[in-house]
Amino acid sequence: MYQHTLFGAYINAIILLLLQRVLLLVASDVDALCACKILQALFQCDHVQYTLVPVAGWQELETAFLEHKDQFKYFVFINCGANVDLLEILQPEEDTFFFICDSHRPINVVNVYNDTQIKLLVKQDDDLDVPAYDDIFRDEEDEEEDSEDESDGSEPSEKRRRFEEVCCTGRKVTLQMWLFLHFRREILFDYEQYEYHGTSSAMVMFDLAWIMSKDLNDMLWWAIVGLTDQWVQDKITQMKYVTDIGILQRHVSRHNHRNEDEENSLSIDCMRIAFEYDLRLALYQHWSLYESLCNTSYTSASLKLWSVQGQKRLQEFLADMGLPLKQVKQKFNSMDVSLKENLREMIEESANKFGMKDLRVQTFSIHFGFKNKFSASDIVYATTSLMENIEKEDSETTNFIKALDSLSRGNLDKLHQGLDLAKKQLRAIQQTVASCICTNLVISQGPFLYCSLMEGTPDVKLFSKPVSLCLLSKYLLKSFVCSTKNKRCKLLPLVMAAPMDVEQGTVIMVGIPPEVESSDKKNFFGRAFEKARGPQGAVLPAGPGRCCPAGSVHASSTDSPGGLSPASKRCLPAQKPQTIIELKTEDRSKFLDALISLLS
Amino acid sequence: MAAERGLELVRELHRAAGGHLPPFRTEEMRQALEEMRALYERNQADVSEAKSGRTDLIFLIRFRHCCLLRNQRCLLAYLYDRLLRIRALRWEYGSVLPNTIQFHMSAEEVEWFNRYKKSLATYMRSVGGEEGLDLTQDIKPPKSLYIEVRCLKDHGEFEIDDGTTILLKKNSQHFLPRWKCEQLIRQGVLEHVLS
After folding, report:
1. Where does the GINS subunit domain start and stop, copy by copy (chain B) (predicted)?
2. Which of A22, A186, B109, B157 is deepest in the core (most CB within 10 A)?
3. Is the sign of the CA dihedral A155, A158, A164, A168 positive or negative?
4. What is the mean pLDDT of residues A235-247?
């Protein structure tokens, strides 16, 4: 159940009474990294011993849990684990506790209604839309005759237990029971149909720190980066973003009000956060303005920069603002001060003329020292590219650790490395998008658009990682919507495929919702992918459906580690958000056909 | 002739910087001692001759004597420097030395090390009240009770004083009491993370 305000009390109980150690399992995205940093700071404050293990997918989560389950009783999951039935998959002991702080929704009903072992960290005003308990679970007393065979060894006094699907074959089923099951299936289907994201975990952690009165400016900055990550990756709606910014703005003014007072202001080396109504151009302060305009999806899509006409329009845009090309193409810091002074207002005015109404966005920036000024989105891009760095052959955990380090202010060299990598990544994305649009690689398959990257495409290795591929697909969809004249195609979602591992012959596929102004960012591809995979020789377990990877190398169903009993029946998708999956290249066409028939 | 082997030994030790202990050169030691013995015998012979009249041998005797002294100085420096390094090892590694290092020590050095250990232990027990004080902990003043460490290589399970085990996997981070990690930090398995 929800355990928001009591979490602090729980942690105190842990320290004082039990002196237990905690295992943190952290997913691989920037929001999780930020939440992890905040939680680490809180633990260090209170001397709670912990161990941090990065997990990149379900397989790793399971392995990590099995390796550590003898040594730890308290597990904290950050940005993983909310949307599956954890108790069934991990099968923990009775005295193990799971604390879940995850922004993925919908939260699995078992996780919500479990009183004893699972504690969820959610904000009180986050609307979860969970179906009522009585609609999904039946109490044991009502089913004495029917559930006799299943409740061997269960205590009759336990009122709320996990509901096990009643096997109806060869058993007398009452009409009431049948109706109940039918409605239950419908309710669960409606509840779990769309996947979306709730409040950022970093913000929830910061809230927790604030309640315990241990919040600092550093933690506030991490919360800001976590929220900005959700916005950059298009996971939340504009409304929610603005609301959350408002919440953080209050905290920022509380922590940073000393800067306004001339007499008592802090030294220049102290860290300060400032609210800014800044331009939406990616990394523009660390790049040249021209490059930034070319490589930000918003401007590139609106101006249609893949065509010659688009390039002309860009020149017109710059001319309209009165910015000489020579100035605009050099590093932003070296631009003339007179030009930089009113840059934001000038750009906004001209942008309105060219149809780009939202070029400015509310965000925050951080200053420390004379040289170091970064905007929140800069940090997000840098950290993402560090985490998905393919340049060196490091393992994923090494990249995770590097990315985690780069969030501390003492590791500016890593941050700069991240910024360079981010520039390369953005350029690669734009070039790929341009080539896809010019060569008409985006084809309409009926209910959705489909684009597949060939193996020989430049920089295709960059897109074998989930977050990069997601970013690419979003930018591609935006650009496609601006480029096509077909009204129907503008409302279609996109499925994108890229080669993941050439030796093993796997392909990574991602599905994103359609690009509409008022979209609520809800993604139905999770369920759709599952169903489309189902018939490919995989066994669907009972209960809220999960699919098995069809012959994919990662989640191997036959050699699961011990501890998971009917392991072959209970397989997991390879990646955490189920809208991203792995397939073998041969299965790809079958899968697509299944998906088309499913969605039409 | 002029104490070359002794000088070789000293040079080798001089090159092995940073407290590193190279293997004990028994063979060269023996050769140097052999050289000294040869010089001494020749000197003995010449002294008896010089006593009985041949005073021109005095310079030769003097020269040989200087060689002997030089040899002695080199060898003693070699032995003493090694002992100092071995002493430092006790403070760095603790009472059990890794096998590779023990290999490099001669039998006498090993015995000296054991006696040093005993002496240090007796001293530490006498200081600091009833239980004694472990002087080899906290060589630099600690800033905090608990430190954040990162595992650099797979070390397997690590048992700590209260019986709980920690699984040290590569790239996992842990927040542990300082005294439990110091050994492993010195060995290079863990790395102190400063944020």
Report:
1. 47-127
2. A22
3. positive
4. 91
The pLDDT of residue A139 is: 62
CA distance B182 to chain A (A): 16
- Work out the average pLDDT over B167-183: 82
Question: Are A401 and B152 in contact, with CB atoms under 8 Å apart?
Answer: no
* Alpha carbon B23 to its chain's center: 10
Peptide bond into A106 cis (omega under 30): yes
Angle between helices A30-46 and A201-211 (to 10 degrees): 20
- Give the distance from residue A526's alpha carbon to the nearest chain B alpha carbon, in angstroms: 31
In this complex, which of B148, B165, B172 lies closest to A44 when CB atoms are compared? Answer: B148
CB contact under 8 A, A53 and B169: yes
Say if residue B80's pLDDT is above 90.
Answer: yes
User: Whole-angstrom distance between the N-terminal and C-terminal Cα of chain B?
Assistant: 59
**Nearest neighbour of B194 by CB, restricted to A21, A397, A410:** A410
**Strand B165-168 and strand B156-159: pairing?**
antiparallel
**Are B174 and A53 an interchain contact pair (Cβ–Cβ within 8 Å)?**
no
Closest residue in chain A to residue B167, using alpha carbons only: A68
Q: CA-to-CA distance for B35 and A119, rounded, in angstroms?
A: 80
The verdict on B177 touching A (C-beta cutoff 8 Å) is: yes
pLDDT in tens, A16-55: 545 678 899 999 889 999 999 999 998 888 888 888 999 8
Q: Is the pLDDT of residue B104 over 70?
A: yes
Record: contact A40-B175, CB cut-off 8 A: yes
Q: What is the DSSP string of B94-135?
A: -SS--HHHHHTS-HHHHHHHHHHHHHHHHHHHHSSSSS---T
Q: Which of A108, A126, A121 is nearest to A199 (CA)?
A: A126
Does residue B161 belong to the interface with chain A, where contact is any CB pair within 8 Å? no
Across-strand partners of A50?
A: A22, B175
Residue A128 has pLDDT above 50, yes or no: yes
Helix (H) or strand (E) holding A374: strand A372-375
Q: Could you give the CA distance from residue A278 to residue A298 in angstroms, rounded to a whole number?
A: 14
Q: Is B28 on the interface with A (CB under 8 A)?
A: no
**B195:A53 CB<8 A:** no
pLDDT in tens, A530-552: 777 765 433 222 222 233 232 22
Rounded to a whole number of angstroms, the distance from the CA of A55 to the nearest CA of chain B is: 10
ipTM attached to this prediction: 0.71
Rounded mean pLDDT, B34-61: 87
> Are the Cβ atoms of B195 and A408 closer than 8 angstroms?
yes
B175 touches chain A (CB under 8 A): yes
Residue among B4, B5, B39 nearest B25 (CA): B5
Backbone φ and ψ of A307, nearest 5°: -105, 165
Which range, A169-173, A393-397, A415-419, B129-133, has the best average confidence (pLDDT)? A415-419
